[in-house]
Amino acid sequence: MNRQKSFENQKPTLFVVATPIGNLNEMTYRAIQVLKDVDYIAAEDTRNTVKLLNHFDISTKLVSHHEHNLMTAIPKIVHDLKNGLNIALVSDAGYPAISDPGYELVKEVIKEGMNVVPISGANACLDALVVSGIAPQPFLFYGFLDRNDKNKKKELEKLKKYQETIVFYEAPHRIKKTLKLMYDILGNRSIALCRELTKKHEEINRGTIEEILSVIDDMKGEMVIVVEGSHEEFQDQPLVFEQSIVEHVEEYIEKGMSTKDAIKEVAKERKLSKNIVYNEYHKN
């Protein structure tokens, strides 16, 4: 168990800082202050983050923390935290660890017993969800589907039964193909396609997948897709066995199992309670 009282201890802290997803005015006062106060900032792309820091007159040192240098960056950051430094983690936009680097570092810092504190801010998933006009709860944040079409189809097949609203991220060059696969697998559901959220060319398109596909060709920018959940009732197919419960138990006994273990194994395979199998076996 890990119990963290963020403001009641003197442990070094990793601050997970959300940054604007487009509009710089979304940067919070608290985020600015934290970025000024920490010993250094670990950034997904220092070239992008330096623009943000310059805008808010923040002169804190920057280091790189991205998916390609995790093996060296994480031990260094953990070492510095252990030596009493406070560090901020930022991604290019939005929250670190949400479809961006960060999870592995957070997990390691928690393991080492130090503080991990969130600094609230912009998030494209929630922005899209609350303006979609689609039921906001319960919802499932899925993020990016696999880039490979075969794998993407498998993912959508698994998701087609979900009754929760589902939120996806997608790149502009893949959006049309992804929507076509959604149409084929999920059906012509209601969706909201949000692009360039909080930016000058922000656009929110609400309608069926078929309707959105008819206008998708002229859309650019990072996309968030909010998809309504399934309205179909899916029932699990009943398990069918050629042998009776008694024959099934006796098969395991013949293989050397005790009667007790055989009953337990049959109950597990048939997804029945052990009492049902026990009573069926012993009723004769």
From TrEMBL:
InterPro entries xref list: 4pyrrol_Mease (IPR000878), 4pyrrol_Methylase_sf (IPR035996), 4pyrrole_Mease_sub1 (IPR014777), 4pyrrole_Mease_sub2 (IPR014776), rRNA_ssu_MeTfrase_I (IPR008189), SAM_MeTrfase_RsmI_CS (IPR018063)
SUPFAM superfamilies reported for this sequence: Tetrapyrrole methylase
Record-annotated membrane-spanning stretches: none
Source superkingdom: Bacteria
Domain Tetrapyrrole methylase: 13-212
Protein keywords: Cytoplasm, Methyltransferase, rRNA processing, S-adenosyl-L-methionine, Transferase
Main enzyme class: transferase
GO CC annotation, single: cytoplasm
EC number: 2.1.1.198
Keyword hit for Cytoplasm: yes
Gene3D superfamilies according to UniProt: Cobalt-precorrin-4 Transmethylase, Domain 1 (3.40.1010.10), Methyltransferase, Cobalt-precorrin-4 Transmethylase, Domain 2 (3.30.950.10)
A GO MF label: rRNA (cytosine-2'-O-)-methyltransferase activity
Location(s) in or outside the cell: Cytoplasm
Catalytic reactions on record: cytidine(1402) in 16S rRNA + S-adenosyl-L-methionine = 2'-O-methylcytidine(1402) in 16S rRNA + S-adenosyl-L-homocysteine + H(+)
Similarity section: Belongs to the methyltransferase superfamily. RsmI family.
Task performed by this protein: Catalyzes the 2'-O-methylation of the ribose of cytidine 1402 (C1402) in 16S rRNA.
Name of the protein: Ribosomal RNA small subunit methyltransferase I
Organism: Massilimicrobiota timonensis
Record gene name: rsmI
